[in-house]
Design brief:
Blueprint (H helix, E strand, L loop, with lengths): L3 E4 L5 H14 L8 H7 L1 H7 L1 E7 L2 E10 L12 E9 L8 H14 L6 E7 L3 H9 L3 E2 L5 E2 L6 E8 L4 H4 L4
Parallel strand pairs: 4-5
Antiparallel strand pairs: 1-2, 2-3, 3-4, 5-8, 6-8, 7-8
Keywords: Acyltransferase, Transferase
Pfam family, one: Acetyltransf_1
InterPro entries: Acyl_CoA_acyltransferase, Bact_Acetyltransf, GNAT_dom
């Protein structure tokens, strides 16, 4: 599937909300009334404090993701020189079609163009096995020393990290 990967505009926010909500609920990650759904639904807040990106095909949002950096409000695990991505969601009608893989590849390509970014990090719930397979197949490695628990809950979250080859910070270094 061909798509354009770009920062979301305010006009995209309703579709980002829909795709994200449907992806998380239909996959069984959360119930529709789970408190975290409020965080996922507040696309406007995310866009104000992080970067919300979309994959659009034929004018429709087919996937959405939030990009953030160390020290920003939506960053949970990013270290210095890391891009962190969160809340990756693919329209449920397109899951299994390769859209998620293509979006993660687009994130990698974007990160490689960012000055100073040497790695990408992400958090994933232990039960998100399909996502883990995708991340591993694209070169992400578990960083178990960085795993963490959701505050106030007994939910362990795994951290994955990808070292970038040919990162913008390395290409710009003098010879």
């Amino acid at each position: 599937m061909n798509f354009v990967f770009r920062r979301a505009s305010a006009a995209d926010f309703p579709e980002v909300r829909r795709v994200t909500r449907e992806a998380y609920v239909q996959a069984g990650h959360f119930t529709a009334d789970h408190p975290y759904m409020g965080v996922l639904d507040d696309v406007e807040h995310r866009a104000e404090h992080a970067e919300v990106w979309v994959a659009k095909s034929a004018g429709a949002v087919v996937a959405a993701v939030t990009l953030t950096f160390r020290g920003q409000p939506y960053s949970e695990i990013a270290l210095e020189n890391e891009l962190e991505f969160r809340m990756l969601a693919v329209d449920p009608s397109l899951q299994g079609s390769g859209v998620g893989r293509a979006v993660v590849r687009s994130i990698i390509e974007h990160a490689q163009r960012l000055p100073g970014i040497r790695a990408i990090s992400l958090t994933s719930a232990t039960f998100m096995e399909r996502a883990h397979s995708l991340y591993r197949s694209l070169g992400f490695r578990r960083a178990p020393e960085r795993d963490w628990y959701v505050p106030g809950e007994d939910e362990l979250l795994w951290v994955f990290r990808l070292e970038l080859e040919g990162a913008a910070c390395d290409r710009s270094a003098p010879n």
